[in-house]
Write a structure and sequence with these properties.
The protein has ten helices and six strands. By secondary structure, the chain is an alpha/beta fold. It folds into two domains: 32 residues; 228 residues, 3-Layer(aba) Sandwich (Aminopeptidase), CATH 3.40.630.40. It has a six-stranded mixed beta sheet with strand order 2-1-3-6-4-5, sandwiched between helices. β1, α2 and β2 form a beta-alpha-beta unit. α9 crosses α10. The longest helix has 29 residues. The radius of gyration is 24 Å and the shape is globular. The termini are far apart. About 3% of the residues have low confidence. It binds zinc ion. Zinc ion (ZN) binds next to loops. Zinc ion binds next to loops.
């Protein structure tokens, strides 16, 4: 292009821009989202349905843990979305898919979530009977029972590709691996225990046997940077518990308990 054409081109562009800019400004202003009324009140919660896809979790006679976890998680999410204005729900999965443990925590961290709730179903080996719901926060408790629960839940990583490297040699089955949790400082411990306590209280209100608040070394909680807890809804390996966990009434009661606890937690931190 010679200089004459360039000058003409530049002049035309300037004139086009002059006409477009006021229009653009108008369009942007007209369609820009209004400033959120509850700006200081924005609250994001990540709901994590344990297991999924190739990882069924614990198995009952009829049910699979992954499906119970998902049913309850989606029901909790619906209750929040319908009733708690200004609360955003993020799910680590909404369908029957496999999600790696680290990725579940990463989803919560990326969402800058205020709360992370992982939902699971308990199991006991060798025909042992168990009844009730319990909630865990991250922490090391040397009780063998808690180590068993943590081991069972953490074993999900063994279905992940290259887990030995990605979890820095962590062996979910070896007690020694859990020593790392003893040196961990959880700065969200107080709030996590508060939420866990509220959840257990609501389970009691719904008539569930209260198995209490405990601590254990859960990988999925370790990598989250917000208050977090892991719920064990009930025992899929105990017949009448399994029936309850698979029933519409059971799913609704459990979901409502968790929802009520989240609601109370949010009110308490206002
Ligand atoms: Zn589980």
């Amino acid at each position: 292009m010679d200089s004459q054409i360039i000058t003409t081109f530049a002049r035309e562009m300037t004139s086009i821009l002059k006409n477009i800019i006021p229009l653009l400004t108008f369009v942007l202003l007209a369609f820009a989202p209004a400033a959120p009324v509850w700006a200081g009140d924005a609250f994001t919660i990540v709901l994590d349905a344990g297991h999924g896809g190739k990882d069924p979790g614990a198995l009952g006679k009829r049910g699979r843990e992954k499906n119970i976890n998902l049913d309850v998680t989606l029901a909790v999410g619906r209750l929040i979305e319908q009733n708690l204005k200004g609360v955003k729900v993020v799910y680590t999965r909404k369908t029957d898919v496999f999600v790696e443990l680290n990725e579940r925590a990463a989803i919560a961290n990326r969402a800058k979530a205020d709360l992370f709730v992982s939902i699971h179903t308990n199991a006991l080996p060798g025909g042992k009977q168990g009844r009730g719901s319990e909630t865990y926060t991250l922490g090391m408790h040397r009780a063998a029972d808690n180590l068993d629960v943590a081991k069972r839940e953490n074993e999900a990583i063994m279905l992940e590709k290259d887990y030995e490297n990605r979890y820095e040699g962590f062996d979910p089955k070896s007690a020694e691996s859990y020593i790392i949790f003893e040196f961990m400082q959880d700065k969200y411990m107080e709030q996590s225990v508060k939420l866990a306590t509220l959840i257990q209280r609501q389970f009691r209100v719904a008539g569930r046997p209260d198995k209490g608040v405990h601590q254990a070394g859960f990988l999925v909680l370790r990598a989250t940077s917000m208050p977090s807890c892991l719920v064990e809804l009930g025992y899929i390996t105990t017949a009448n518990e399994e029936n309850y966990l698979l029933s519409r009434q059971g799913i609704e009661q459990l979901a409502n308990s968790i929802y009520q606890a989240i609601k109370k937690y949010k009110e308490s931190i206002k």
